[in-house]
């Protein structure tokens, strides 16, 4: 027994920033502290905007998140994340590329309160569109109108991505 010693709980609060606005024709981003472990309770949003009449393609590499898609995950939106259709949800071990229907894409990374891993790194680039890249309420690469409402029809596949299922 140590005299004058009290058990104490120390909480180390790491200051970090994540997310942001990316407006170059191409670039890269990663989870906080990559390739070190990302923090608990992360909520990061990257908004990517390229020039008009171009589309955004994002490529995920080295995705190491807490297992499944229930705890830690990445969401790819076809425009601003708070008002646009979900293109896909990227889970542990997944990789691949996704393209927007417009010149704007949002990526959101969420981690829960426990278990952290290395996270992810991603690259993005812009490419000319054959069409105008102005957005319609339900326009996206995977979804469409069904019965007068937006139905993205997204279902999980064996690779950890949510994909349009016919």
Automatic annotation (TrEMBL):
Keywords for this protein: Disulfide bond, Repeat
Q: Does the keyword Translocase apply?
A: no
Domain CUB: from-to ranges: 18-127
Which Pfam family name is an example for this entry?
CUB
Q: What is this protein called?
A: Deleted in malignant brain tumors 1 protein
Species this chain originates from: Saguinus oedipus (Cotton-top tamarin)
Its ancestry begins with: Eukaryota, Metazoa, Chordata, Craniata, Vertebrata
């Amino acid at each position: 027994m140590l005299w004058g010693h009290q058990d104490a709980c120390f909480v180390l609060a790491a200051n970090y920033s994540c997310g942001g606005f990316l407006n170059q024709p191409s670039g890269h981003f990663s989870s906080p502290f990559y390739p070190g472990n990302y923090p608990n309770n992360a909520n990061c949003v990257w908004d990517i905007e390229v020039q008009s009449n171009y589309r955004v393609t994002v490529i995920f590499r080295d995705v190491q998140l807490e297992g499944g898609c229930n705890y830690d995950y990445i969401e790819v939106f076809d425009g601003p994340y708070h008002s646009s259709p979900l293109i896909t949800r990227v889970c542990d071990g997944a990789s691949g590329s996704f393209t927007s229907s417009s010149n704007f894409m949002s990526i959101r990374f969420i981690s829960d309160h426990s278990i952290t891993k290395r996270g992810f790194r991603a690259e993005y680039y812009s490419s000319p569109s054959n069409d105008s890249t102005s957005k319609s309420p339900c326009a996206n690469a995977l979804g469409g109108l069904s019965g007068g409402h937006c139905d993205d029809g997204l279902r999980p596949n064996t690779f950890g991505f949510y994909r349009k299922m016919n």
